[in-house]
Each structure stands twice: as C-alpha cells, then as structure tokens.
Design brief:
It is a multi-pass membrane protein. Pfam families: MFS_3. This is MFS transporter. Keywords: Cell membrane, Membrane, Transmembrane, Transmembrane helix, Transport. By secondary structure, the protein is mostly helical. Helix content is about 80%, strand content about 0%.
C-alpha cells in the first residue's frame, strides 16, 4: 500500500516557543537599527543637502563591519550566543543614546555642521563594530533553537521578519520625523532596543558546539574562508546577492527622491520606505506555504532579475504611486532572494562553523547594503540621482544574466536533497 505524503506545516517553526521569542528579538533589533540609520540619513542630508554625505554614512559603517568580520565570526563560534547578543544590544543602545544627544539642540546648538557630522560618523563607525558581531550571532542562535529539519521553514520566517522590520523601521522613521522630530524619534529607537533585550533574556543559554575551543585564530579563519569558497552553492548565492545589493542600493537615495524629485515630504518618505515592507510581508505568506527548495537556483536568479527591473522603474518614475509600486515589487523580489539565500546557508553550514560562515556572508551581502549606499551616493554625485538609480538596476540585471550563462550548475541548484538529509521536508 502506497504511503500518503506527509502534509507540510507552514507554521512548523512557529510552534517552538523560543523561536517565537527569537523572532520578536530580531524584529525589534532590526527595526531599531534600520529606523536609526534612516533618521541619521535624513538629518545628515537636511543639514548638508549633499548626496556625498549620505554615501559617507554607509562607508563609515562598512569599514569596521568588513574589517573585523572574520575576527567576529571566530569569536562567535567560541562564545555562548545569547550572552554575546546581549552585549551587542547594550553596545547598540549606547550608540543610540549618543545619537540622541547629537540631535538635541540644547547639546549641539553651538556646534558647527562639521563637528556634528564628524561625531555622527564616529558613532556610525562604532555601530559598524557592533554590527560585525550581531549578524553571525543571530545566524548561529537560530540553529540552536530549531531542529535541522525545520531550517527551511525557520529561514523563511526569520528572513521575512528581517525584511519586514528593515523596511517598517525606516517607514516609521519617516512618519516620526514629521510627527515628533528627529531628536525624539531617537527615543523610540532606544525603546525598541530595550524590548529586544527584555525578550532575549527569556531565551535560555545555549551550548557551544564548536569542538575546537581555543583554536588559534588564524587557523580558525582560514578554515571558515576555505569552507565558503569550496562550497559552490554558498559562494554562488553570496556573490550574486552581493553584486545585486551593491548596485541596487537605490533606497539610500530616498531622502533625495522624497525631498527634491517627488516632493512628497517626510510623510511621502514614510510611504516610500513602507512599500517594500508590504511586498516582503506578501513574500512571507507565500514562501511559508509554497516551499522554495525546488529549483532554488533559478528562483534566486529570477528574483534578483525582478529586483533590478523594479529599481529601474523606480528611478525613471516621476509619479509618486508608480514609485511606490516599484518599491513594493522590489520588496517582494528581495524577500524571495533573502529566504533562498538563508536556506542555502542554514542547510549547508556545519554547526561549529556558523559564526565564521555568517561573517563571510556579512562581508559579501550584509555590508554591501552600506557599500551600496556609498556607491549610490557617489554615482548620484557624478551622474545625477536618476541616472545613478537606473545604472544600479541595469548592473543588477547584467549580473543575473551573466551568472545564469556562466554557471549552469547554479541554475540547476535544488535544495530538496539537502532537506531530506536532515529529515522530511517541512
């Protein structure tokens, strides 16, 4: 008698209590971080009216984030994950308090523009140091909360939570700037950081699975880098997403579009930032019910191609609601690519190397968000804002086409066998 296939449960990971708490922690932390980044972008552009100053914000964060990424991954693999994340949140809260003071007229009323800018850049630089540890710690912690057979489902919910928070945070930033101003908006950021910390304390301490505690740091780093470069699926996904994010970083220029091109003010700025979040939420619902493991390579290529098209449409649009629609579809496609990439990383990374692999991921993809912001600011200065955005979208599409042509093995990537190796597909 033929056995009936086991019904997939789209909420399997959500039935684990600590995973739900983890999602609340991740949402609050990403929400606060992304909201803070946008508020600082708005403030810096408001006092300088210079796209180059926006690019420097991304540069100031990416230098430390990339510079110590591998070292941070080594530390994460050697330490208890919950305790390390607590320290990261405390560090972020300290930086937020510093920015709160820098946006207080009673404190900086007599300061020059350059003094304020240099102080902001210094705190953003410190934030890059903290960020180098946050990404690998979160990536490692999730694998200690859910069983391996639920990694694809957990990656879907975790990635979608990140995507929604990373756009809802800036969206609220736009509205809060209008409602209560830049200074008091920083209080909201500190409140969300506190919320993340309180919920994190509800998660129990986790074991350290690395059998090489005390391993020389250079040996540890070489092992992590070698693993990424010899695992073609991981290397392909990271490289593809890195280039796409690097050249598709048009959202860094949204303050310019809101203030000077579309002329919609902070309220319209909030709507523009919220549009990708709606698309990301739709992605969360779809990918939870429809597994993306089959033909994952082609789906990733198609998603990033669609992202590039959306960015071009956004750059060419001078009509507010067309711009909103383009950003909506950029959120949909970016959400799909993120879920697939995180699933690949979770399935193909050994437990004892998660910190180091996540650090390489942050160097390839996570930091390319800030490098993309720098690239967008630089190209906007050289080419003009609209031309810079269209250029970025075009480079994204060319990257996808080139990857599809030169890497047939990546086009054929299918994750179903990896899932079956960890248990039945969820």
């Amino acid at each position: 008698m033929q056995q009936k296939p086991i019904k997939k449960d789209p909420y399997a990971a959500l039935r684990i209590k600590e995973f739900n708490i983890f999602l609340m922690v991740r949402f609050a932390l990403v929400f606060a971080w992304s909201m803070q980044f946008i508020i600082i972008e708005w403030e810096v552009y408001s006092i300088t009216k210079d796209p180059w100053s926006l690019g420097l914000i991304g540069l100031m964060e990416i230098i430390p984030a990339v510079g110590i990424a591998l070292f941070a991954g080594h530390i994460v693999d050697q330490k208890e994950k919950r305790g390390l994340l607590i320290k990261c949140i405390l560090g972020f809260s300290t930086i937020s308090f510093g920015l709160f003071l820098l946006t207080w007229p009673r404190i900086v009323g007599d300061w020059s523009t350059n003094e304020i800018l240099y102080s902001v850049y210094f705190l953003v630089f410190c934030g890059g140091l903290v960020r180098a540890f946050i990404g690998p710690t979160i990536f490692s912690l999730i694998a200690l909360i859910v069983p391996k057979k639920l990694y694809p489902n957990a990656a879907t919910w975790s990635s979608s939570t990140w995507q929604v928070a990373s756009v809802l945070g800036p969206a609220l930033a736009g509205f809060s700037i209008s409602w209560i101003g830049v200074h008091w908006s920083m209080c909201l950021i500190m409140a969300f950081a506190l919320l993340a910390l309180i919920n994190l304390l509800r998660i129990s301490k986790k074991p350290i699975l690395n059998p090489k505690i005390g391993e020389p740091i250079m040996d540890s780093l070489k092992e992590g880098v070698r693993f990424v470069f010899k695992t073609k699926a991981i290397l392909g996904a990271l490289t593809l997403d890195m280039v796409a994010v690097l050249f598709g970083g048009a959202v860094a220029l949204l303050p310019i579009f809101a203030q000077d091109i579309l002329k919609v003010g902070p309220e319209g700025f909030g709507v523009l930032r919220a549009a990708p979040a709606v698309g990301a939420f739709l992605t969360m619902l779809i990918t939870a019910y429809i597994p993306i493991s089959k033909n994952a390579g082609m789906k990733l290529l198609a998603a990033i191609f669609g992202f590039g098209v959306s960015i071009i449409v956004f750059g060419l649009s001078s009509i507010f609601w067309i711009s909103v629609a383009a950003l909506f579809f950029s959120g949909v496609t970016d959400g799909v690519s993120m879920v697939i990439r995180q699933t690949i990383l979770q399935l193909k990374t050994p437990d004892h190397m998660r910190g180091r692999v996540a650090s390489v991921n942050s160097m390839f993809v996570g930091s390319s968000n800030e490098l993309g912001a720098f690239e967008s600011g630089l190209t906007a200065k050289l080419m003009g804002t609209v031309t810079a955005v269209v250029f970025g979208g075009t480079m994204t599409i060319l990257t996808v086409v080139t990857t599809g042509i030169v890497s047939p093995s990546f086009r054929k990537l299918d994750l179903r066998k990896d899932i079956e190796a960890h248990g039945k597909e969820v």
